[in-house]
Specification:
Layout: H1 2-14, E1 37-40, H2 42-48, E2 57-59, H3 60-74, E3 81-82, H4 84-95, H5 104-107, E4 115-116, H6 117-131, E5 138-140, E6 145-148
Antiparallel strand pairs: 1-6, 2-5, 3-4
Helix pairs in contact: 3-6
The chain binds calcium ion (3 copies).
């Protein structure tokens, strides 16, 4: 069972949605039941593409080089800014959707409608730090997937009194 869960997690890191792995026998879904299982974050696809040595984790050095490469893909005309159109194209290509998280507003710190190289690097660096839960300077696959319970959300969190860590805890970690 444990290895089955692990292989589902590995698959989830590649595919965006792997809810089919979640449970061989689907429960009777109530009306409030959401998707459940293991999910890879859209940003995980960006980070895993930076894994140059294919050791299945992304180092800080790989991140630095990966950001340079990702930026040249985002700023297609090389003017130093990713315009709204350029960023949308990059988001669809790399995150899978124009509205996938992190959205452009999360990059565009000064709200001028463009994402500068500095804003791009800053946002991806912040995402890396936020996801590196064990603070070892590497992003492992286990830090790039989240488990979603499918249970209705309770405002303010804490919907799992049973003791499991929050399934979406990566969103609650403070930035470094
Ligand atoms: Ca690596
Ligand atoms: Ca900006
Ligand atoms: Ca780590």
């Amino acid at each position: 069972m444990q290895s089955g869960v692990r292989s589902c997690a590995a698959i989830a890191a590649v595919a965006v949605f792997a809810s089919a792995c979640a449970s061989p026998a689907p429960r009777a879904a109530g009306p409030a039941q959401g998707p459940q299982g293991w999910f890879a974050l859209p940003i995980a696809m960006v980070f895993t593409s930076m894994d140059e040595d294919r050791d299945s984790r992304v180092s800080a050095a790989e991140l630095a080089r990966g950001i340079t490469s990702a930026w040249s893909a985002a700023d297609r005309d090389g003017d130093g800014f990713a315009s709204g159109f350029e960023f949308e194209a990059w988001s669809i290509r790399m995150l899978g959707d124009a509205d996938a998280s992190p959205a452009r507003v999360a990059f565009d710190v000064n709200f001028d409608g463009n994402v500068s190289a500095q804003e791009f690097e800053g946002r991806l660096g912040d995402e890396f730090g936020r996801l590196d839960r064990n603070r070892d300077g590497f992003l492992d696959r286990s830090e790039l997937v989240v488990q979603v319970s499918g249970q209705p959300r309770i405002a303010g969190g804490g919907n799992r009194p049973g003791g499991d860590p929050p399934d979406d805890g990566v969103d609650r970690l403070p930035p470094r």
